Amino acid sequence: MTNSEVITSIAGDLNTAEQSLDAAIARTTTLIQTMIGARTALNLTAVSGAASQARAMEAIAALSAARDALVACHEELAKDHRRHGFGVYAIGHMNKPAEAALNNSDDQARVSRLRAV
Asked: If we measure between CA atoms, which residue out of 111, 105, 95 comes closest to residue 15?
């Protein structure tokens, strides 16, 4: 593999991991919302399900801490990239669907820029 292929592989895996954590946070918040809605629909007291909701909120806090660690990893990888002189790197999302890029011109401009290091 060339340096470019190795770096692209790392960047793709990093992006996938970041998106996975974001999705997990979003799904867990949806779970809490559903739990609250179910409690309301079933006419249960606020005490009912409070412990399970608290655990789900703990999960969100843990996922958020993991997301922070992954962002720090991303920053360190960018430093390593510059330190080793690997040249240009992409700014913004990789493999972003064309439809989403067209709907947000600011993101599209960010994706299309490359920066020489």
From this structure: 95
Q: In terms of residues, how long is the chain?
A: 117
Question: Which amino acid, residue 41?
Answer: A
Tell me, yes or no, if the pTM score tops 0.90: no
Helices (H), 1-117: 3-41, 50-83, 98-103, 105-112
The b-or-e profile of 44-70 (16+ CB within 10 A means b, else e) is: eeeeebeeebeebeebbeebeeebeeb
Confidence of residue 52 (pLDDT cuts 50, 70, 90): very high
Residue keyed to tokens 């430093």:
79
